[in-house]
Amino acid sequence: MSEPETVEDFFGVYLLYCINPKYKGRTYIGYTRDPNRRIMQHNRGTWAGGAHRTSNKGPWKMVMIVHGFPNNISALRFEWAWQNPNKTTRLQHLNLKKIPRKETEFQFKIRVLSEMLRVGPWYRLPLVIRWLEKDFYQEFSPERKPPSHMTLTDGPVKAKNLKKVVDNDMATENCIECLLCSDYLNSKEKLTCLNSNCELVAHITCLADLFLTPGEFVPIEGKCPFCDTKLQWGDLIRKMKGCYQGAANCLPVDNEGDDQDHSDDDVVCSQERKFVDNESWFLDCNDDL
């Protein structure tokens, strides 16, 4: 078996498939920051943190996971819509229903996913569609393929979540200058190029304005104004949050220690409306529910 790919700052929405002969074919959609830990919880039962719907019905297999969301709110909105395709306003116009005797529950969930990846706000996110079990792999139909900036891949994955370090050196922080607007900025709003030899330092809003196309609110990609490197907006945000090593304001979380930053235990019912109300400019999906 291949070595798992390590993904930093992990937010994922997964699809489970039941292989218990009594319940074979049933599926479950959920959210996690640690997929390996989460599948163990589902197969151990509610006493270990698994969901009531999966308890005592296993074993379950996590056959695929979609990750690359900017935060938990974005991932949880995606989870809710995938669970309820006829309740989210993003998909209601499609009137998605399982085709009797021609489509299994699993095939229907994949068809719903293929539609979700092609509508706003999700079609603008730098998502990764990862198949964890090759025996369940299904090709997306040509007319329903995800956008080209999304990644289709397979193989195991390991989450490496990050913990921010408080920067007490405010004097140094306030001396950083945005090279696009010449105003001062701090580390929480600073974007830098993925090219280590590039000198770009900019406000997140300044670079977003440079990358945005008319009528859009969230960039997808663009070229660095200093070194002309083609950049994915999602990669820039992930670097700002401390991914890709060498980030001074973040440290990796010890998966064997404190679970505060990546545990699934504190996730309340993500189908509650209060869990998806957020005004973040990056999400732009207040009409989903």
From TrEMBL:
It comes from the Eukaryota. Its cofactor is a divalent metal cation. Its EC number is 3.1.-.-. Residues 9-92 form the GIY-YIG domain. GO terms for molecular function: 5'-flap endonuclease activity; crossover junction DNA endonuclease activity; zinc ion binding. PROSITE patterns: GIY_YIG. Forms a heterodimer with a member of the SLX4 family. Belongs to the SLX1 family. This is Structure-specific endonuclease subunit SLX1 homolog. It comes from Parnassius apollo.
